[in-house]
Amino acid sequence: MLSPALILLSLFSGVALCKLYDNVADLPGLKYDFVIVGGGTAGNVVANRLTENPKIAVLVLEAGLSNEGVTSSQVPFLLNQLIPDSTYSWNYTTVPMPGLNGRSMPYFRAFFLGGCSAHNGMVYTRGAADDFNRYATLTGDKGWSWDRILPYFLKSEKWSPPADHHDTRGQFNPKVHGTKGPISVSLNGFPWSTFEQKVIQTTKELPHEFPFNLDMNSGQPLGVSWLQSTIGGGERSTSATGYLAPKFIRRPNLHVLLHAQVSKLVNATHKAGKPAFGGVQFRYGNSLFVAHASKEIILSAGPVGSPQILLNSGIGAHSTLSALGIPPVLDLPSVGKNASDHPSLFIMQWEVNSNETFASITGNATRFAQGLAQWNTSRTGPFVDSGVGTHIGFSRLPKHSSAFAVHADPSPGPGAPHLEMTFTPGGFGAVGANLMTIDIAVVSPVSRGSVTINSNDPFAPPLIDPGYLSSEFDVIALREGVAQAKQFVSAPVWSGYLGAMTTDIAGLSDLELETLIRSSTGSSFHLVGTAGMSARGARYGVVDPDLQVKGISGLSVIDASVVPIVPAAHTAAVTYAFAERGADLLKQRWSC
Ligand SMILES: Cc1cc2nc3c(=O)[nH]c(=O)nc-3n(C[C@H](O)[C@H](O)[C@H](O)COP(=O)(O)OP(=O)(O)OC[C@H]3O[C@@H](n4cnc5c(N)ncnc54)[C@H](O)[C@@H]3O)c2cc1C
Ligand SMILES: *[C@@H]1O[C@H](CO)[C@@H](O)[C@H](O)[C@H]1NC(C)=O
Ligand SMILES: *[C@@H]1O[C@H](CO)[C@@H](O)[C@H](O)[C@H]1NC(C)=O
Ligand SMILES: *[C@@H]1O[C@H](CO)[C@@H](O)[C@H](O)[C@H]1NC(C)=O
Ligand SMILES: *[C@@H]1O[C@H](CO)[C@@H](O)[C@H](O)[C@H]1NC(C)=O
Ligand SMILES: *[C@@H]1O[C@H](CO)[C@@H](O)[C@H](O)[C@H]1NC(C)=O
Ligand SMILES: *[C@@H]1O[C@H](CO)[C@@H](O)[C@H](O)[C@H]1NC(C)=O
């Protein structure tokens, strides 16, 4: 039997061949089985999987612009132009953070189709098996354990040859990768051979401290591995290019509306003895509209947008809502709390005695133009890679670290790292200077932050507090990271290659180093946890292990916000895997 929404659709079939709508007036109607808020990393996964069933009608409401023709999103090496480009950004700034000496900073979130997958660093990391086994324990649902989530990682992934088709044997483990999914993943496709050889040689000279790891995405990330990125054929792969590829977006039961900013959930009712919402209010141009979902509303607005919409809708801490005059629907104090993210430190940067660095391109307008032209004609050359680096290393703090006197070990198990190092034949500094960088991030942070609102205007920007370095543990961990980076470059292979550090840290006391860390730490933009899952019946948490909002009927959150604790990984791959399972949970619930 056709659903009413589909009957409506069939009346209008043939009106528009492309189901990506720029104008609300062109939508055939506003009644659907499912309404998904946010066409980002997770939202497009859910939209794709639900519409595999032609009887299910799905509307995606995306606030931002189209990703079509955004060259800086397509060309991996243009990353540094894309991220600060305010056209494709929500233009958020964090609140001042005491842990960073009162600094606030830009907090980038993408404002176009594909969400952050379309403007992130493309680093493809899954985290440690221990991360997922902890999620399973925390939620009482074995479905979130590593063994049960791994198939979802593989389902979303299409392992692809690097753009230069070099011999990749010994650089990854094919057994842990998927080959049929929508998201392309590959090794770098342009060599920085001198630097790469030195990193690999370090794993031989210091094998105890920095062992080589064939593939950091096996669930056992400790060691140094070759970088993997969400890139295929020299182009960035995103949830928009993958999950909304032409063959999917053409489905008559899938509609995506751009420029539609959701304010809140409306048409409150009761279903099965619980509060429920029949509609989603959004702004298009200067007018408000309501889209209706007969089955379920899914928030996929990301770890900033989803808690904001919950709060705007009266779901959150009673005290916060009443103070703003927002009628409370459900007292759910964890909404927006428990935000966790990776603090990142870029001070470990050296001048190098080599011109085989990114500066050879970024510091010479002629070579930059040649590189872009080469990408344009053949999808080869230096522009096929993100410029993030060549390798990633994951390590643990020493057992005797003073960090453990401040806080019990926050890592989920012995196979999970505390620190991540990214090795890069380039850096930030004088244009044209030949540099190398070891970026250090704490991937087991103790600090927690929040996302909240301070206005009853649903379109006012939320307050974002990643809470960086609010725990001394994270500061000590970064200090240990500095020591580990120094140890890395103490391997004999670096002598004669390394020049001076661009920030002189020689002879700093622990206290002076701490001050430098607090004044220079930045963000990794890996925010999670703001609509975190917890066990059914737990006294905290926002969603149950099936991703439905606790105490509400017909409302799920499926995006990075449900991940309860930040994994030891850049968070896009995890978001894809969670969204794949989230879509399966919806299909089971609605037998569709
Ligand atoms: C600068 C940056 C670099 C990063 N680098 C990496 C990396 O290299 N590797 C990695 O794995 N991860 C990286 N990440 C993190 C990763 O990209 C994110 O964790 C992940 O993409 C989050 O997915 P999501 O679906 O939760 O949210 P998003 O992808 O942000 O999707 C949310 C979508 O909802 C839309 N939206 C929000 N509010 C509303 C509203 N009210 N109405 C309608 N639509 C709305 C947004 O416009 C967006 O399209 C990076 C993130 C950033 C910002
Ligand atoms: C961010 O700022 C730019 C430039 O002012 C603007 O074009 C864009 O629409 C802004 N984004 C949002 C979400 O307001
Ligand atoms: C749904 O809510 C909107 C906005 O509050 C309101 O205009 C509309 O009348 C409501 N529709 C129904 C069917 O209650
Ligand atoms: C944050 O999460 C932890 C579990 O990781 C939980 O114990 C705590 O209650 C949560 N806090 C809030 C405010 O939700
Ligand atoms: C690098 O240096 C070598 C030798 O000094 C020189 O021949 C070459 O042109 C330089 N390459 C670049 C990219 O500057
Ligand atoms: C810039 O690159 C071009 C092309 O390789 C080269 O001819 C020129 O000498 C370079 N300029 C500088 C200042 O290195
Ligand atoms: C790529 O080439 C096409 C024509 O072949 C041109 O129109 C376009 O501007 C080029 N893009 C870039 C980024 O160089």
From TrEMBL:
PROSITE patterns with a match to the protein in the record: GMC_OXRED_2 (PS00624)
Similarity field: Belongs to the GMC oxidoreductase family.
Keywords: FAD, Flavoprotein, Glycoprotein, Oxidoreductase, Signal
Signal sequence segment: 1-18
Cofactor: FAD
Name the UniProt record assigns to this protein: Pyranose dehydrogenase
Record-linked SUPFAM superfamilies: FAD-linked reductases, C-terminal domain, FAD/NAD(P)-binding domain
Any one Pfam family match given in the protein's UniProt record, by short name: GMC_oxred_N
Phylogenetic placement of the source organism: Eukaryota, Fungi, Dikarya, Basidiomycota, Agaricomycotina
UniProt xrefs under InterPro entries: FAD/NAD-bd_sf, GMC_OxRdtase, GMC_OxRdtase_N, GMC_OxRtase_C
Domain Glucose-methanol-choline oxidoreductase N-terminal: start-end pairs: 302-316
Active site positions: 526 (proton donor), 570 (proton acceptor)
Residues binding FAD, per UniProt: 120-123, 262
Domain of life: Eukaryota
Gene3D superfamilies: FAD/NAD(P)-binding domain, Glucose Oxidase, domain 3
Molecular-function GO term, any one: flavin adenine dinucleotide binding
Source organism of this protein record: Mycena albidolilacea
